[in-house]
Amino acid sequence: MKKIISFIVFTLFSSLSFAQLFQESLEPAVNQSVVYVGSYDWGACIEKIVINTGHDIQNDKIKSENFTVERILYPKGTSIGMQKGELTVTDAFLSDSKGNKTEENSSYITILTDVYPDAENSSPFVSMLLGDRFYNYYGYKITNKALSISITNLKGFVNKDAAKFNISKFEYIFPATAEEKADPKYEEKTLTLPYASFIPETKKKIPLILWFHGMGESGTNAYQVLFGTKSSAFATETIQKYFKDGVAVLAPQCPTGWLETTEESSFGIRYWAPVDKDAPINTITKPLSNFLGNFFTIDDSHKTEKTPFAAVSYYTEPVKTLLFRFLAEHPEIDRDRIYVGGCSAGGYMTMNMFLECTEIFAAAFPVCEYYLDSKITDSQISKIAEKPIWFTYALNDETVNPQKTAVPTIKRLKEAGAKNLHVSEFRNVVDLSGKILLKRDAGKDDSEYGLPYEYDGHSSWIYVFNDRCRDGDLSLFDWLSKQKL
């Protein structure tokens, strides 16, 4: 029965294909909608939808409770979709074409939707496991029976920060041995890596940040990389201000997971990097184990100089090749100022690249990194101890136990004489804006009144993208901007 269900799901979703683009600004034509998506600490969240009814409507006719916003999953080449939940409407009003409120009669209506970490159906991305590999795409049906409104034609998405990035793809061809090429059955092995990139407008030499996303952003839609952990913030003034002429960003997307390694079983199936199986929350390990089976945990003490089992990412060479091609295409990037960073599984990839290609990078900043300390040899520690590195993590991280990753690695680096080592350690991860509360409906007599929303302890990247990482008076990005080979 399971095989039949899997076949049906694949047959249905393998046909889905829509181009999802984020623009700086859009105006809906008649009977069209434009969806505004915000980049928040918890990810992408739809903030408002502007529709064009095609005829003027009076202000007193607008009642938010009369509007319904359904999320529709559309197959390729058809207008027939599957209803996949509703967004919560919080307000509605007449507006201009950009969503600015007006008191005059207008054909444009702006609908506000719930903005909160737990808001239902608020993400514009498909959330099912590996769903985006089959090009799933959400559209929206906006209805108001009282005003005879029914709009399903989506013009596009708006997010000013995401629109600053270029979305592209890189095709990597794996090198073949002479023996493989001589085999008449040999088929060339290729890999497609989507990526997002940002280049500041300047004629000066600028540094580059190579950023690796977490497991939740794996797939084939690079916009997920920008929204999943709010890494679109790299292009904002909050971070750009630390770099005299700005900093470029290259953020590749992994189709499976950075933890996939070069080691293969006798069946030709690649192993995944060993992880902390004792972690009580399986945010990363559960989807991987469902897809690939059991993880392999072999006792590889760092006291031996033998390369630890399943420690090198399958994506090391493809990413390195993408990086070098990107540098060739952008001579304005200073090759002496290339920095590497990433969170969670991307933190693993950060450590992987820093260990495997140490000479390329001027500095590294792993965040809640997933690289088990037991997989790092003493000689590797000695090598990276000579390089600038900044660790960020939260003590209550139950997805990646810092006591098995960053903490012992930091200890060993200190013992190896690391001179440019910094750490941002947090007790937990909470909202920093003052707007997202733990209990929104709490009254003044409630003990939780006014308390900030608390995120999972694994989400320490929130402190990075809100520029809250400090080591004494030194800030992460101020420090990063000063590092050079």
Overview of the structural elements:
- By secondary structure, the chain is an alpha/beta fold.
- The protein has 2 domains: 2-158, Sandwich (Immunoglobulin-like); 162-481, Alpha/Beta hydrolase fold, catalytic domain (Rossmann fold, 3-Layer(aba) Sandwich).
- It contains 11 helices and 24 strands.
- It has helices at residues 2-13, 178-182, 223-228, 237-240, 285-292, 316-329, 345-356, 378-384, 406-415, 461-465, 476-481, and strands at residues 22-23, 32-40, 43-57, 68-73, 82-87, 89-95, 106-113, 138-144, 149-151, 153-158, 166-173, 190-198, 206-212, 248-252, 260-264, 270-272, 333-343, 363-367, 389-394, 421-426, 429-430, 454-455, 470-471, 474-475.
- The strands form 6 sheets. It has an 8-stranded mixed beta sheet. The chain has a 6-stranded mixed beta sheet with strand order 1-10-2-3-7-6. A 4-stranded antiparallel beta sheet has the order 5-4-8-9, with no helix packed on it.
- It is globular.
- 41% of the residues are buried.
- Residues 1-18, 128-134 and 279-304 have low confidence and may be disordered.
Strand order of the largest sheet: 11-12-14-13-17-18-19-20
Report the biggest beta sheet as strand number plus sense, adding barrel if it closes: 8 strands, mixed
Q: What is the total domain count? A: 2
CATH structural fold name of the largest domain: Rossmann fold
Query: Which regions have little confidence, pLDDT < 50, spanning 5+ residues?
Result: 1-18, 128-134, 279-304
- What does the average pLDDT come to? 87
Q: Given the helix and strand composition, which structural class is it?
A: alpha/beta
CATH superfamily of the largest domain: Alpha/Beta hydrolase fold, catalytic domain
- Count of DSSP H/I helices: 11
State the distance separating the first and last CA atoms. Answer: 58 Å
The amount of helix comes to 10-25%
Taken as a percent bin, the fraction of beta residues is 25-35%
Rounded radius of gyration (Å): 24 Å
Based on Cα principal axes, name the global outline: globular
CATH class placement of the largest domain: Alpha Beta
Report the count of strand segments.
24
What CATH architecture of the largest domain would you give? 3-Layer(aba) Sandwich
